[in-house]
Amino acid sequence: CHHGYLERASEYSDTEVSLETCCRREPTCGTSFTCPGGYAPYHSHFMAAVLNVEECCRPTCLTYECPHGYLERPDEMSDTVVNRETCCRMEPACGTSFTCPEGYALYHSHFRALHLTQEECCRPTCATYTCHHGYLERDSEYMDTEVSLETCCRREPACGTDFTCPPHYEAYHSHFLALHLTQEECCRPTCATYTCHHGYLERDSEYMDTEVSLETCCRREPACGVDFVCPDGFMLYHSHFRALHLTQEE
Fold first, then answer.
1. How far apart are CA 80 and CA 176, in angstroms?
2. Are 224 and 199 in contact (CB under 8 A)?
3. CA-to-CA separations, 62 to 39, 47, 55, 66, 73, in angstroms, rounded
4. DSSP of 23-43, one letter per residue?
5. How many other CB atoms are there within 10 angstroms of residue 7's CB atom?
6. pLDDT at 129
7. What is each CA distance from 76 to 35, 65, 86, in whole angstroms?
8. Considering the chain, what is the average pLDDT of its residues?
9. C-alpha gyration radius of the chain
10. Which residues contact 67 (CB under 8 A, 6 or more apart)?
11. Which has the closest alpha carbon to 248: 228, 225, 233?
């Protein structure tokens, strides 16, 4: 019998001597062997007569275990070129497959994290922080991820630190943190801004007093009726009681 054929034992004494009568085809991969799951027939070995997996079959991607961070390619499971590039695809990760919402930045130390959630992939920036009263956002730190009052905010200019009152005005201490930097908001006048009426003089000791009124800022000017004594033989000129020139003639 030729190569690939076996003797037919039942026809051993037959006198019709031929390949067909005396021989039977030897079982081969292509006719007599079924590859197990995950393997495909080795077509170039179709006529191989040694019937085993190694001879008749070759593995497919079904037998390949993708490494961490990779997923199987479903459309390549029957491929017999078995390697990571053929059988696997990179698993979606923060750095490639997740977009952080507005106000958040990608957590670079979690670039390869596989749980695609905002908590896993992103961290808040100063854009998510609300500055306290009296503070303004630091525009230069808008995307900073060290989120705190000190990092994200700057103190808003205030009377007590950023406004100088003009001469004769004093800082309005109860408005120390007022945010409208105007003279009206931050300062109050002193007696130095007050003009005493006729017959009154400034009180030097009250020059910087902020209770601005005639009584506080001024004192009555000396007058005949209260501040001048007539000499003997003379009497007070009552019609000139308020005269301000303190002379005997007046």
1. 80
2. no
3. 8, 25, 19, 10, 10
4. EEEPP-HHHH--PPTTEEE-G
5. 11
6. 92
7. 18, 13, 7
8. 80
9. 53
10. 84, 88
11. 228
- In the prediction, which pLDDT does 111 show? 66
Most distant CA atoms of the chain, gap in Å? 190
Burial 64-92 (b: 16+ CB within 10 A, else e): bebeeeeeeeeebeebbebeeeebbeeee
Query: In this predicted model, what pLDDT tens digit does every residue of 221-239 receive, in sequence order?
Result: 777 766 677 888 887 776 5
- pLDDT per residue as tens digits for the range 115-143: 778 888 888 999 999 998 878 888 876 77
Query: How many angstroms separate the CA atoms of 114 and 92, rounded?
Result: 7
Full-model pTM: 0.38
Q: Show the tokens assigned to 249.
A: 């003639």
**What share of the chain has pLDDT > 70, as a percent?**
82
Element (H, E) at 224: helix 224-227
User: Given a cut of 60, is residue 205 above it in pLDDT?
Assistant: yes
Q: Where does 39-193 show beta strands of DSSP type E?
A: 39-41, 57-59, 70-72, 88-90, 104-106, 122-124, 135-137, 153-155, 169-171, 187-189
Q: Smallest Cα–Cα separation from 193: which of 175, 171, 211?
A: 211
List beta partners, residue 70.
90
Looking at residue 208, its amino acid is M
